[in-house]
Amino acid sequence: AVVSTQSTGDEDLEKHIVTPGDVITKNLDFMKSHGTMLSTDHISSTVAGAIHKVDKLVSVRSVSSRYRGEVGDIVVGRITEVQQKKWKVDCGSRLDCQLQLSSVYLPGNVLRRKNLNDELMMREYFAEGDLICAEVSEVGNLDGMLKVHMRTHEKYGKLPEGVLIKVPSVLIKRSKLHFHRLPCNATVILGSNGYVWVGPHFVPDQPIEAISMTLRETIARLVNVIKALTAYGVQLFDTIILTGYDISLKYKVKELLKSEVMEIIAQESYEHSQHQII
What we know:
The chain has 278 residues and is an alpha+beta fold.
C-alpha cells in the first residue's frame, strides 16, 4: 500500500508515487498539468500515480491509466493484425500502435527499400500473436496513436519463447537501459509501456537452443518476483529485480505466490534498494 506523506517544499518532487491530496510542491513557479490541482499556496495531486516533471511542467500519471507513449520509449508489444504495408501492435495504449513495413529490418539485417515481394511475405516476418520489441518513433497529434520502428537489428525485433507480464506503466523506472542480461542466465526487457518480457538470452534473427528445466525454473522465479514487486507498488529496474531474485532463493518457486512471501520479497527488496541509494 502507498503511504501518504504530507511533507512540504520542493523535496516532494523527489517522491515517485503520490495519492489524491498529496502536496506535490509549494513552489508556484511550476505549472500544473493533468492529474494536479492548484491551491492557494501549493500544487497537489488529484489522482494516485507517479509524478512526472518536464522543466517547470508537473503532472501525475495515474496508476490505472492507459500508457501514453513518448518518442524514444522502448516498448514490448504483440502483433494483433497484418494490414497493407503495416502491422497493428498491442502496446497497452488507447489505440493499437502502427509498425510500418518500411520501418523494420528484414531477415539478414537488411534495411532497404521494400518491394511487392516483401509486402506479400509480411506474415513471414511478423504474424498475429508474435511478440516484438520496438521503439516509439512518433506520437499522433490528434488521436495520440503511436508509431513504432526498429532502427537497429541488434536489440529490436521478434522475441523468442518467454513470458510476458503486464504491469502498470508508471512502475517501470525511466532509464537509458531497458534490456537486461541478468547473471542468472535470463534476459528481462522492461518495456516503458508496462509490458515486461522474461526469457532466455538470445540474438535477434538467430534460433535459440532448447530451454532447459533449470532455466525454466529461473524464468518462473523471476516472473513471480516481478509479480510480487508489482503487487506492492515497487518500481521495477534491474537491480531491484536481482535483489528480489536473490531473496527468493530460500523459497520454492510455487511458494513465491503466497501473499506473505510476496510481502517479504517486496519489503526486503525495497529496503535494500533504499540503503543502496543512501
